[in-house]
Amino acid sequence: MKKYLHLFFIIPLLMIFCNFKSTVLCAQELKVVSFKHLEGNTTARVNRKRDINGQNCAILIIKHNFNDFSVEAGKDYEHREEKKGETWLWLSPDEYQIVIRKTGYIPLQVSLKNKLKELETYELIVTDEFGSVHVKAPEAQIWLDDKAVAKNEYTFRLKEGRYIIKATRHKYYSQEKFVALNAGDDLEYIFNLKPIMGNLNILSSPNATKGADIFIDNRLIKEKTPANIPLLIGNYSVKLTKDGFLPFNQTVKVNENITTKITAQMQVDPTLLIQKHKRLKNFWLISTVITSGIGGYSLWQSDKLYNEYKSATNNASDIRQKVEMYDTLAPIALGVSGFCFIEFIIHASKQGKAKQKLNLYSSYTKGGGMMTLSYNF
Questions:
Q1: Which is nearest to 157 in space by CA: 129, 126, 132, 183?
Q2: Angle at alpha carbon of residue 89, lines to 84 and 91, rounded to 5°
Q3: Which CATH number fits domain 130-190: 2.60.40.1120, 2.115.10.20, 3.30.390.10, 2.130.10.10?
Q4: Model confidence over 184-243: pLDDT tens digits?
Q5: Positive or negative CA dihedral for 42, 44, 50, 52?
């Protein structure tokens, strides 16, 4: 039993050592990027302080890309100020070292022995294992090594290494950057994705429809027919409108780097045809009534004057001339009346046929109101 007793002491020590070793191996490191004397910098002279021995202090400006850390000086420091990305220390010129401590990191010892002088300013740049990559990609999805991370804008805090940063957007060409990131780097990338475009060429027929308004996905655009319109790839609803014509509707697909052509055969608005035939029908009806009235009146006057002519003496010649005039006028008037009546029948028939073929159809009037009309020729 005694020969195994020593194991009870060795095993716990091994466990403690392994745990310590694992902690050290997993700990991250801080790195000194540079240390230099800022010659000609008067910060230490302007912001003069003395150490406990009465010596004028030097100022050490520590520039860093991390927060939440402590600094220990061998002889302590007289004053400390925090600024954005910087920590200012007033140190004795006899200071021999400082130690920077941060949770999860191996303490960083920086030797200052024989490096500091009174009233001089020095700069120490320190970084952790990380760098920053700021990405701007308006309206786009941002990816890191094929993993979606954010949209529009994002700042990565990454360990030193190589990465692929990509930006994607629907109907746009994607872009990617190969990034070699060093500790302490502060990089910025701006992605301006290019749209994937095609063209839509729109013509309208008949010739009277030139200048028709164009709606793309129910949005009025500034171009009018004929027009060549660059568009993002995809499906669109196209509508053309023109006063006096029925709206033209079609769904079209725009493909990459291809011109898609539409020739819109627009039909005359049937409501205008009905109004036209109604107007002409009424005109020919009134013309028929007037001319038939003139013809009938002429016949009546001719018969009346003819009876007077039989018994006339002194004015027989005048009466005869009037009879001849009315005899001439009557058949002309009645002939014109017959022609007018035929025209009346024709336009009344066309108006009736148009009304029979009139069905519900969505159409916008000039004033913006909606009426539902459909017409089949």
A1: 132
A2: 170
A3: 2.60.40.1120
A4: 888 999 999 999 999 999 999 999 999 999 999 999 999 999 999 999 999 999 999 998
A5: negative
